[in-house]
Each structure stands twice: as C-alpha cells, then as structure tokens.
Specification:
Number of domains: 2
Order of helices and strands: EHEEHEHHEHEHEHEEEHEEHEEHEH
Distance between the termini: 37 Å
CATH superfamily of the largest domain: DHBP synthase
Bound molecules: threonylcarbamoyladenylate, magnesium ion
Largest sheet: 11 strands, mixed
Strand content: 15-25%
CATH topology of the largest domain: DHBP synthase
Shape: globular
Oligomer: single chain
Strand order of the largest sheet: 1-8-2-3-7-4-6-5-9-10-11
C-alpha cells in the first residue's frame, strides 16, 4: 500500500530512482514520474491503463526551466505565464529534442505547466528534471482531488502519495495551443476563455467538440463513475423517470430530495458558487460511486465562465449510461 506523506525529500528519493509518486496540484492529483526517463514514464501508462497514444503534461517550477524543453517561446507565452503561472493553465508548445517521444506520443508539441501547490512547487524546485503527470486515476475514471481517493484507486500499485490535502480548484487545467498562429482552447478548465482573451487581446477558438487523437482526454467516456450516471438540467424530471431505483443526486444549490425518495443528496454550493462546485464535484462523485447506487444524477452548472468546463466534464462523465 502506498505511503501517504508530506515529506518532500522521501518523494524526491522515489522519483530520482525512477519510481512513481502521486503529487498534489491546485487542480487534481497527478501521477508523477521523472519526465526525462522513458522507463519511469512507461510505468505511468501501465499503472493507469492509459493508451500510449495519449500524451502527458510536463510540470515545471519556473519559466526558465521550461526553456530547454521547447524549441520556441513565443512572446504571448510570457504574458500568459506572468498572469496565470503558477496556475491551472497548460500550454502546447513546439517541443525540443530533450522531450522523450513517449511524453508527446509522437506529436510535435509538448504540454507544459507550472502548477500552483506549495508542496509540489517545493518538490519541483529540488528536482533536476520536470515531472510528467497525468491525473492520478485509472484511465477513464474520475480524477482524484484528495489523497485518499488516489489511495483508493491506485494505492496498491504505487509506492507513495504526497499529501497536499484537498485540491483547491478541483477540475483539470485549461489547455491552450496555437493553430496556424491562432490561440485555441483544447480543453476548457478553471481559467476561462474570457480570462485568456483579456491577456491575449484576442478570443481563443474552441476545440471542445474535438475527439481527435490530438487530446485523447477530450474523448468521451472520461471522468466517469462506474455507477450509471446522468448529467441533466432537469433533475426533477429524471428523478420522476427513475423512481424506485437507488438514486444519488448531486446539485449545485437547491435540493430536490424532499419531493422524491433519494438515497443521498449533495448540494455542492448553497450560494451557487461555481468555484465551490468545481472544488467539491469530483470528491462527491467518488463518494457516491462507493455507495452501491443504481444511478447518479448530476445537475449541470449554468453554462457561463467556469460552468463551461464543469459541464464539459459532466457530459463526459455520463456517456457510459444506456437506459
Ligand atoms: O490539471 C491538470 O492538467 C492535471 C494536473 C495533474 O496537472 N493533469 C491532467 O493530465 O489532467 P491528463 O493527462 O489527465 O490530461 C492531459 C490532457 C490529455 O487529454 C492529453 O491528451 C492532453 O492533455 N495533452 C497532453 N499533451 C498533449 C499534446 N502534446 N497535444 C495535445 N494534447 C495533449
Ligand atoms: Mg486525466
């Protein structure tokens, strides 16, 4: 069973030796390995059951340390870095020869970010290499936002989890790249398109519907509980339709459980805060998925700002369901 610890030096020892450590970030926990060691990287794919054509993000402590891993550092990157790093923004940049093939799955761009978590930043500062880290869940399952959720899913397979407490923002980073010089969002996330537009002076395009190999995390059947799950705007209607089943409900700010019999109802934010919804969503999905329910109903967020990223994940979480 994985050791759960706050000790950065022990984590460094495991990583230096080519082992895996789950690390906290402000978004979700990552399953980290030495980003320059193909053998260590191979273990990430094996442990998650992740297809090898799905590329990995490299995590760094500083902008200067990214430089050797990219062949170009456009001026816009410096503006974005000044505004958002450390933070939940991942950039797709032309890679240099220093990046192992397995990181980019054969693509010519590498995904890089500086995460905003004090423990992980301190760890990265002590390492002589970046950390490759996908979310620390079995491929296709919900991303973990608490150390105990990493332990529950991968604890038997990895030696160590660095305990940074619950993740503050709770959904994965926004992925931004450039298509023929034009900025494009490949995965919506905590940092909104509007916030990026304000810094770049131009609104990025959206690749939300893309299911191409370019970002396999964007394919369907991701972020999904094992319990049949439906994301909906019409919670009451779904409750009515599924009466008699053992149902768990996750809503944003209002409850429905007094009108129908439900096994469990979680209101994520009585004030209707999307930040709070994002922060608690995955942990609540883990909790309900462990309850042996027939069905999980999740209410969509209002589709503005961060609500877009939340709803993107909710759509993908419910694709396993065939009524
Ligand atoms: O918030 C996050 O980004 C978390 C934390 C741990 O940093 N990481 C994360 O990693 O969500 P992962 O592997 O679960 O999702 C990364 C996504 C995948 O959909 C992958 O396909 C895409 O980024 N990606 C990585 N490198 C890429 C590349 N070179 N080109 C296109 N997409 C890429
Ligand atoms: Mg993931």
């Amino acid at each position: 069973m994985a050791i759960i610890t706050k000790d950065i030096l022990s984590a460094k020892r495991v990583l230096d030796a080519g082992g895996l450590v789950a690390i906290p970030t402000e978004t979700v926990y990552g399953l980290a390995a030495k980003g320059t060691d193909p053998t260590a990287l191979k273990q990430i794919f094996e442990t998650k059951g992740r297809p090898v054509n799905n590329p990995l993000i490299l995590h760094f402590a500083t902008l200067e340390s990214i430089r050797p891993f990219v062949s170009e550092m456009p001026e816009a990157v410096k503006h974005l870095a000044n505004n958002f790093w450390p933070g939940p923004l991942t950039l797709l940049l032309p890679k240099s020869k220093k990046v192992p093939e397995v990181i980019t799955a054969g693509h010519d761009r590498v995904a890089v970010r500086i995460p905003n978590h004090p423990l992980t930043l301190e760890l990265l500062q002590k390492l002589e290499y970046p950390l490759a880290a996908p979310s620390a869940n079995p491929s296709g399952y919900i991303s973990p936002t608490r150390p105990e959720h990493v332990a529950q899913q991968l604890g038997e397979k990895i030696p160590m989890i660095l305990d940074g407490g619950p993740c503050k923002s709770g959904i994965e980073s926004t992925i931004l790249g450039w298509d023929k010089e034009l900025p494009a969002v490949y995965r919506p996330g905590t940092i909104t398109t509007e916030e990026i537009a304000a810094v770049l002076g131009t609104t990025p395009q959206t690749h939300q519907k893309s299911t191409t190999i370019l970002a396999p995390g964007m394919s369907l059947s991701h972020y999904a509980p094992r319990t049949p799950t439906i994301a909906t705007i019409a919670v009451l209607k779904e409750l009515e339709r599924h009466q008699g089943k053992k149902i768990g409900v996750i809503t944003l700010k209002s409850g429905f459980g007094d009108q129908f019999l439900v096994e469990k109802e979680v209101i994520l934010s009585p004030q209707g805060s999307l930040q709070e919804m994002a922060q608690k969503l995955y942990a609540t999905m883990y909790e309900l998925d462990a309850m042996d329910l027939d069905l999980i109903l999740i209410e969509f967020a209002p589709g503005e700002g961060m609500g877009k990223a939340i709803n993107d994940r909710l759509k993908r979480s419910s694709t396993h369901y065939n009524p």
